[in-house]
Amino acid sequence: MTERKGLVIVNTGDGKGKMTSALGMMLRAWGQGMWVCMFQMLKSGRVAYGEHLAAERIGIKIIPMGAGCQWDWKDEETSRKVNLAAWEQVKEAILSHNYDMIVVDELTYLFQFRWLDEKSVCA
């Protein structure tokens, strides 16, 4: 059996399109019979976003793990702790090899806020 190599795709930029691109790639992979999931680092589970409702209908896991977007922060330290704990769960999912594709939405914010170092993610 040939060992499969992983691929990391980073969508960046101002404005719209990053999530749409990730959802499109995830949907295409799911359509080809791959096991897929998405972790959302900042979004909380308190709101049923459109992508959550659509994914639930077809059986794709989207897991909101954050304390809310930065404009909703009541306490930055709590948000930092929540997101670092979320990253630990993402790492477990990656290392489990249970998924063919894992989308980590808004991970780059953790770098921007200096909550997580890029080198630790790529190790």
Describe the protein.
This protein has 123 residues and is α/β, with parallel strands linked by helices. It has one domain (34-122): P-loop containing nucleotide triphosphate hydrolases (Rossmann fold, 3-Layer(aba) Sandwich), CATH 3.40.50. The protein is built from five helices and three strands. It has a three-stranded parallel sheet, sandwiched between helices. Helix 2 (50-58) links the parallel strand 1 and strand 2. The radius of gyration is 15 Å and the shape is globular. It starts with 17 loop residues before the first helix and ends with a helix. The model has no long low-confidence stretch (mean pLDDT 85).
Mean pLDDT: 85
- The CATH class is Alpha Beta
- CATH T-level topology: Rossmann fold
Number of domains: 1
Quickly give the CATH architecture.
3-Layer(aba) Sandwich
Strand order of the largest sheet: 2-1-3
Ends apart, CA distance between termini: 25 Å
Condensed summary:
The chain has 123 residues and is of the alpha/beta class. It has helices at 18-31, 50-58, 76-96, 107-112, 118-122, and strands at residues 36-40, 61-64, 101-105.
